[in-house]
């Protein structure tokens, strides 16, 4: 929480009640990847009149401050999750049947990055998504 507060403070982003509700939803769902609609649904349990525009703006702002990590898994739909604070972000496996999003442990891309480095590129980050069927859905089919 301290790291989050520091980022908020440094960027002069004040947490109003509604913004705080959005951030709390994300913190209580650590490890999950939520769409703006899902965040809205949860936030309304605390603030019934909170609107999608506020939720969306807050999510975007928190993502721009690196407090949240934002990624697109379905066509035109962003999902947000709590950022692991400056560490490299993990990669994802998306199940095409049930929609489950899991995290991949291990990272084989650093070797590739250093190869690109040698070619004169300066790589800042990378992101990888696998699409397929999770063990449960795979068993059913
Ligand atoms: Zn599945
Ligand atoms: Zn994730
Ligand atoms: Zn990686």
Structural notes for this entry:
By secondary structure, the chain is α+β, with helices and mostly antiparallel strands. It folds into two domains: 2-82, Winged helix-like DNA-binding domain superfamily/Winged helix DNA-binding domain (Arc Repressor Mutant, subunit A, Orthogonal Bundle); 91-140, Ferric-uptake regulator, C-terminal dimerisarion domain (Dna Ligase, domain 1, 2-Layer Sandwich). The chain contains six helices and six strands, in the order ααβααββββαβα. The chain has helices at residues 2-10, 17-28, 36-43, 52-64, 109-118, 135-140; strands at residues 34-35, 68-74, 77-82, 91-95, 101-104, 129-132. The protein has a three-stranded antiparallel β-sheet. The protein has a three-stranded mixed β-sheet with strand order 5-4-6, with no helix packed on it. α2 (17-28) packs across α3. Bound molecules: zinc ion (3 copies).
Helix/strand layout:
Layout: H1 2-10, H2 17-28, E1 34-35, H3 36-43, H4 52-64, E2 68-74, E3 77-82, E4 91-95, E5 101-104, H5 109-118, E6 129-132, H6 135-140
Parallel strand pairs: 4-6
Antiparallel strand pairs: 1-3, 2-3, 4-5
Bound molecules: zinc ion (3 copies).
Summary tags:
141 residues, alpha+beta, Arc Repressor Mutant, subunit A, Dna Ligase, domain 1, 2 domains, three-stranded antiparallel sheet, three-stranded mixed sheet, 20% strand, binds zinc ion
